[in-house]
Design a protein that fits this description.
heterodimer, A: alpha/beta, B: alpha+beta, 3 domains, 6-stranded mixed β-barrel, two-stranded antiparallel ribbon, 15 helices
């Protein structure tokens, strides 16, 4: 799925302080993009606008030439559920659910968990945590929890995966593991990936880098 | 979201159990107290309506008022000044036109039955014990058509009164008070009108000390004979086909006659006002359940919403809509209200069952010697509905605030 950002501006507070100053770019279907830049450069803000979690003050985001700002709430939520995947710096797993249930969480929205159980187990197997499917998230290490979060984001075969510093809280070993898995997903499932990272080595794994400097593309 | 709501509740067992306990105890308390109060009320109403009569016609005995006398003596006189204003009571202690009344009541299609009575205060003596009582002369067959007296008989039957002259039925408490037994003769006196011995052939127990200690039933003719007033009638008791129309029926008759006609509601007005107070207490309890259950759930869910902000953010980001989030928390409150209310009903029912086996002391409100407890379905319906509705209502506020949370606001604040 192609993403197009047209003149994205974002302001916060009163008086309004602009943090994104008219961002324009196109991410083609199946691309792996790394959004880089210093802290406060507006990477996360841009990612959340691109992923429909936030709205631009000006400008628009188009998915396959369709303006997301014209969609009603129901369509936006269905789009997030069916077409997008999210991996955040913190895993945000639900501690009340088992690993398998956490992975199946997006499918529960449409009561399709039974249909996707095999897929969930396959993903857990790919990420090397199939043996921990019945455990609760509190019983896993940080790296394992982040891998569960990635599996959860991939359960419905999203067209686009947004990852906001997924390795930010992991040690080098687990960080490498997570990045290799993202790369593998990109290659095997042809998923468009938009990744925010501070790590230049991880950024190099992406096909293209978009560097933000003070709210503008550098 | 049912699955997730249940998981959330199970994950914080202590809070869930404490909240459930609040709802359960509130509901059970309401059920048992309502059962006691309504049981008592039902018992008394049964006595008012079925054991006595729906409408009572009596000789009017009223105080004399100044305007009444003025209008009668000086219809045109607006400037009358009394040296001593008129006072005293007027009226008769017997009904004037008994045949007229009986004809009227016989023809009225609303009347099921009626019975004539002569009520006179008598001095009752047995050996050296003397007490004042109310002698009620009745025609047993007529009276039994009006009042459901037989269930209160402890020895004999009211019909036995018809089998002979000068026989009486007395309250168990009266018999015990004077130290007499069945078959003994009590001497009933009417001052200067003389006295006659009456044989005790049966006893009754209404459960009201005043009645059981101070009432004697005999045949109407025997009472009239003792009173030396053949054909005198002081009361006519009426049973209607529909007791609900007692008040308008009594008002209608009262407006057309000189006699005092009162419905059972008017006769027992003061007791019925006590019922109203009891009802206020019961409804106050309902509000108390509402507040206790409501606050418990409101607190628990408000805390949960705050603790689950990150989870709410992730649920919204993976496609769950605001309504889903509201539903998730609303369901928790509804589940607590449903289960708590249900357990409360069961515990309340068990308490009521246990209470209904308790023997209460004579003279207290009771039916067959046991505590009267109401198991009316509406008590259970109100108890459960209140618990459930208050739980749902109080969970709606935190649930709605959870539904309004935007994932970006949560992530930025974290």
């Amino acid at each position: 799925m192609k993403i197009e950002a047209r003149g994205i501006k974002k302001s916060f507070g009163m008086p309004p302080q602009e943090v994104l100053h008219g961002i324009d770019f196109i991410i083609n279907s199946g691309e792996f993009i790394a959004l880089t830049g210093r802290s406060g450069s507006g990477k996360s803000t841009l990612l959340y606008i691109l992923s429909t979690l936030d709205q631009a003050s000006e400008g628009k985001v188009l998915f396959d030439d369709e303006d997301a700002s014209t969609w009603d709430s129901k369509k936006v939520h269905a789009f997030r559920n069916q077409k997008l995947g999210f991996v955040f710096q913190f895993h945000y797993l639900l501690p009340e659910l088992s690993v398998l249930e956490n992975v199946l969480l997006p499918t529960m929205k449409t009561h399709a968990e039974e249909k996707n159980k095999t897929r969930a187990m396959e993903l857990l197997d790919i990420f090397g945590i199939a043996d921990k499917a019945a455990r609760f998230s509190g019983q896993l290490s940080g790296g394992e929890q982040q891998r569960v979060a990635i599996a959860r984001s991939m359960i419905l075969r999203p067209k686009i995966l947004f990852a906001d510093e997924p390795t930010g809280n992991l040690d080098t070993h687990n960080g490498d593991l997570v990045m290799n898995q993202l790369k593998k997903i990109h290659e095997e499932e042809k998923t468009t990936i938009v990744l925010i990272t501070h790590d230049p080595d991880f950024a190099k794994l992406a096909g293209r880098q978009i560097n933000l400097i003070d709210g503008s593309i550098g | 979201m049912n699955f997730l709501a249940i998981r959330y509740l199970l994950s914080k067992k202590k809070q869930t159990i404490l909240t459930l306990l609040g709802i359960t105890l509130g509901t059970a308390g309401y059920i048992s107290i309502s059962g006691i109060m309504l049981g008592f009320q039902t018992y008394l109403l049964d006595q008012f309506i079925n054991s006595d009569c729906h409408v009572r016609i009596q000789a009017r005995d009223e105080p004399v008022t100044e305007p009444e006398v003025r209008n009668l003596l000086f219809p045109e006189g607006n400037s009358i000044h009394w040296i001593t204003p008129p006072s005293g009571r007027r009226g008769e202690d017997n009904i004037d036109n008994v045949p007229g009344w009986t004809e009227r009541l016989s023809k009225d299609p609303r009347v099921l039955a009626y019975a004539l009575q002569l009520q006179i205060p008598v001095i009752t003596q047995f050996a050296k014990v003397t007490t004042t009582t109310q002698l009620i002369g009745i025609n047993p067959d007529d009276q039994l058509r009006v009042s459901n007296l037989e269930p209160y008989m402890t020895v004999g039957s009211f019909k036995d009164l018809s089998k002979g002259a000068n026989q009486i039925m007395v309250g168990e408490a009266l018999l015990s008070k004077v130290g007499a037994r069945i078959g003994d003769y009590l001497v009933l006196s009417l001052g200067n009108k003389g006295s006659q011995p009456f044989k005790v052939i049966g006893t009754f127990k209404f459960g009201m000390k005043r009645t059981d200690e101070g009432t004697i039933y005999t045949r109407l003719v025997d009472a009239q004979s003792l009173n030396r007033s053949p054909s005198k009638v002081s009361d006519i008791t009426v049973k209607l086909i529909d007791p609900e129309i007692s008040l308008p029926f009594a008002q209608e008759l009262s407006a057309k006659s000189q006699e005092l006609v009162q419905s059972w509601e008017q006769i027992n007005e003061s007791t019925l006002s006590v019922f109203k107070t009891q009802d206020i207490v019961r409804y106050s309890m309902t509000i108390a359940i509402l507040v206790v259950a409501g606050f418990g759930i409101f607190n628990v869910l408000s805390m949960t919403v705050t603790q689950k902000r990150k989870e709410i953010a992730i649920l919204r980001s993976i496609g769950y809509e605001p309504f889903d989030i509201t539903e998730l928390f609303l369901l928790q409150g509804m589940i607590l209200g449903f289960i708590g209310g249900l357990i409360g009903l069961i515990i309340g029912f068990i308490i009521c069952k246990l209470l209904s086996t308790i023997e209460v002391s004579p003279g207290r409100a009771m039916g067959m010697g046991k505590m009267m407890i109401s198991f009316a379905p509406r008590i259970y319906l109100i108890g459960f509905t209140t618990a459930f509705a208050s739980s749902a209502f109080s969970s709606f506020i935190p649930a709605r605030s959870a539904g309004k949370m935007e994932p970006m606001d949560i992530m930025r604040s974290d």
